[in-house]
Amino acid sequence: xxxxxxxxxxxxxxxxxxxxxxxxxxxxxxxxxxxxxxxxxxxxxxxxxxxxxxxxxxxxxxxxxxxxxxxxxxxxxxxxxxxxxxxxxxxxxxxxxxxxxxxxxxxxxxxxxxxxxxxxxxxxxxxxxxxxxxxxxxxxxxxxxxxxxxxxxxxxxxxxxxxxxxxxxxxxxxxxxxxxxxxxxxxxxxxxxxxxxxxxxxxxxxxxxxxxxxxxxxxxxxxxxxxxxxxxxxxxxxxx
Length: 240
Description:
The chain is mostly helical.
């Protein structure tokens, strides 16, 4: 109801949460054990509690991680099914995803989301090592997230160029402006380079073009269909 108040509040709270939950957690771990001795095969939190003699706390951490992972998967399936429904209403996804069940649930989007989860977990049959499979999947999702953020930054740069008067009227401007936009873009590209230096993350980097190629094909098909609809509206008698 009040985006000028709620959006800045939500955005400004993100750095604090990152410092508290990520940087703060890393500080606690490094304060107890050397970063060189942290094994990527084990949870650093479980290792930390075991090191200080609290095995029960280590088991509790495993329980919390498992339940949070299930909660995250559940919310992801929910969000994806609703997003597919919204995209289909805007003609940005197949119309079949806009059909609802008797209980007003986008069942086809829900089934599609669950199928994607099943395909994702099936990587364990190809890569038997759980940590290797996790690294590949997490690296692939990171690449897709980086791609999304790059598009957001490019949109911001184009917005400032095309509508400078609207940007001047904005009450909540991006700190640093264009400099920070290009700096962030450089950092994201640097992240991609870092992913190319490890074997497991390099696999995800090599596979990601398949997804982007699929998006490109879908975009071309949609653009062609929209062009045909525009021609049909402009000259309907030519198609009778």
